[in-house]
């Protein structure tokens, strides 16, 4: 644990929890949150990855406020509840970034997706987000907070169909978008904001490991990017920072698309 401090910044004084904090988007968001004065609980299913991620945050933001790590499998409600309640000792959660998600190598089309892969994907990508939202609301109420920000990671595949199938993943991200929208309306008068982040294909292990050296698979995607490139995790993290901060105080229920224009393209430049 880094020692508590008084670093100023766009998230100064906010207690934030991030799931999937050891991965691409989660780690970049942890770094930005730490730089902007937040207290951050970095959680992930992998302890080894968390230790490495914590080392990186500590190195890049040596004078951060409170930064801690905690193993949390988001598909287990007890883990999520325990992690959120850990922040009770800090003064209660203000922000949760429900970001953990998987895209399984055996995820396929309607015919070929194995049922266990369907269930695994929904358990992590959908139930995990639900648990995060549920325990965030309970914590915000427990501490009498008048505002809170919940950011859930969906994907552009919740908005546009992909010809290369990953049906369980796509269905899970559609569910994240829909549940986020509804929670945004249900809790608006309590001051709790819910927004969904919709990233385009990125340069992170989740997608790049899956694509590997397959140039055809890679080109199949790149041709649809108006910018001609994959997005970077830090470009998502910048959006999450805005949604977490009070700068976005009137932004609620959005499908916050960070995709270089991909979902708005008819044809792309040559
Ligand atoms: P990543 O694979 O780099 O990181 C994901 C992290 O989640 C990993 O550290 C992993 O250990 C963790 N994780 C996996 N299962 C977990 C579980 N059960 N409980 C807790 N943590 C778990 O992926 P990323 O690209 O940073 O993706 C983050 C989010 O962004 C995911 O929800 C993903 O679906 C979404 N997304 C990614 C892309 C992309 O192209 N990379 C595009 C759109 C959306």
From TrEMBL:
Gene3D superfamilies: NAD(P)-binding Rossmann-like Domain. Coiled coil: none annotated. PROSITE patterns: ADH_SHORT. The keyword NADP applies. SUPFAM superfamilies: NAD(P)-binding Rossmann-fold domains. Pfam families: adh_short_C2. Keywords: NADP, Oxidoreductase. InterPro entries: NAD(P)-bd_dom_sf, Sc_DH/Rdtase_CS, SDR_fam. GO terms for molecular function: oxidoreductase activity. Belongs to the short-chain dehydrogenases/reductases (SDR) family. PANTHER family: 3-OXOACYL-(ACYL-CARRIER-PROTEIN) REDUCTASE (AFU_ORTHOLOGUE AFUA_6G11210) (PTHR43180), DEHYDROGENASE_REDUCTASE FAMILY PROTEIN, PUTATIVE (AFU_ORTHOLOGUE AFUA_6G03520)-RELATED (PTHR43180:SF63). This is Uncharacterized protein. The lineage of its organism: Eukaryota, Fungi, Dikarya, Ascomycota, Pezizomycotina.
